[in-house]
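Weekly sync, protein design subgroup
Attendees: M.S., D.O., the rotation student, P.L. (late)

Item 1: inverse folding check
M.S. brought a backbone from last month's batch and wanted to see whether the design step gives back something sensible before we order anything. D.O. pointed out we never logged the input encoding, so this time it goes straight into the notes. Structure tokens as presented (286 positions):
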């Protein structure tokens, strides 16, 4: 493991990082709005303007990006079309959507947000996980979540890891061939901060951003913490593996807990292990 390097700061709340080869590191500012790309050479560009509240981003190949927020929507990169895949539904306490990931067939798992409350005064556990199939049909595959956050599949695609931030725990589900989720078990309980975004490496380790925990915890496949990577900001929000070999870890943060509203930063760390492949969504925008 090499030295941690800060690449850029000046954002409010960075979320949803993914590696998209033709753009570089793609991410959102969930508070101030917009989706951005940081090229391998360090050039920053704006991909989509205005939209706020994006907690998750999924690549849809050369077509565009799928983003969360008040809904889950596929936005073409040329700006010509937006296709809403799931909308908020206040009658069912689905107030919006947060982190997302894809399976080996390009289907999308998306976590919903409800009136979750706080760790001291938790609201009802009304968060859900939805599966968006390749024909854009949607079905609920899990429920009873306090605050849905990071989602990632194991390298073989048979296990889904999921952060429930207000419970301070990561759970794992067995994944069925039709995308439905089987038995849910506790994977790990956080000792510092709350689990936010997460990613999985090919060796089975699970890398977890710690909101309020000043960094990233690394867990082995049994759920035991084996390493910790410290950053300057307390509010570490998410992370992803990137570059051609997927051996660069990109870590992002927000401004919460600092004296500035522009302390959100991006860090880079070269590793010996590669991240598991995250597949593009297979939805056709038509």
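Designed sequence read out in the meeting:
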């Amino acid at each position: 493991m090499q030295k941690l390097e800060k690449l850029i700061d000046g954002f409010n709340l960075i979320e949803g990082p993914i590696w998209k080869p033709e753009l570089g590191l793609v991410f959102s500012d969930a508070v101030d709005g917009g989706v951005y790309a940081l090229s391998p050479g360090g050039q920053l560009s704006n991909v989509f303007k205005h939209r706020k509240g994006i907690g998750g981003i999924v690549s849809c190949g050369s077509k565009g990006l799928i983003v969360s927020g008040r809904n889950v929507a596929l936005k073409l990169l040329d700006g010509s079309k937006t296709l809403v895949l799931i909308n908020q539904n206040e009658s069912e306490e689905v107030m919006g959507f947060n982190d997302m990931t894809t399976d080996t067939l390009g289907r999308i798992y998306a976590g919903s947000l409800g009136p979750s409350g706080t760790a001291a005064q938790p609201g009802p556990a009304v968060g859900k996980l939805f599966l968006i199939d390749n024909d854009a049909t949607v079905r609920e595959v899990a429920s009873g979540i306090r605050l849905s956050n990071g989602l990632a599949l194991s390298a073989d695609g048979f296990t889904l890891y999921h952060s429930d931030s207000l419970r301070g725990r990561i759970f794992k589900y067995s994944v069925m061939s039709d995308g439905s989720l089987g038995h849910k078990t506790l994977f790990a309980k956080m000792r510092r901060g709350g689990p936010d975004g997460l990613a999985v490496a090919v060796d089975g380790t699970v890398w977890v951003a710690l909101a309020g925990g000043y960094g990233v915890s690394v867990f082995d496949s049994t759920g035991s913490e084996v390493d910790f990577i410290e950053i300057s900001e307390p509010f570490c929000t998410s992370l992803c593996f990137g570059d051609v070999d997927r051996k660069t870890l990109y870590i992002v943060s927000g401004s919460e807990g600092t004296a500035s509203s522009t302390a959100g930063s991006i860090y880079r760390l070269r590793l010996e292990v590669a991240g598991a492949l995250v597949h593009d969504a297979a939805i056709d925008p038509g």
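Discussion: The chain has a mean pLDDT of 95. The radius of gyration is 17 Å.
Action: P.L. to compare against the previous round before Friday.
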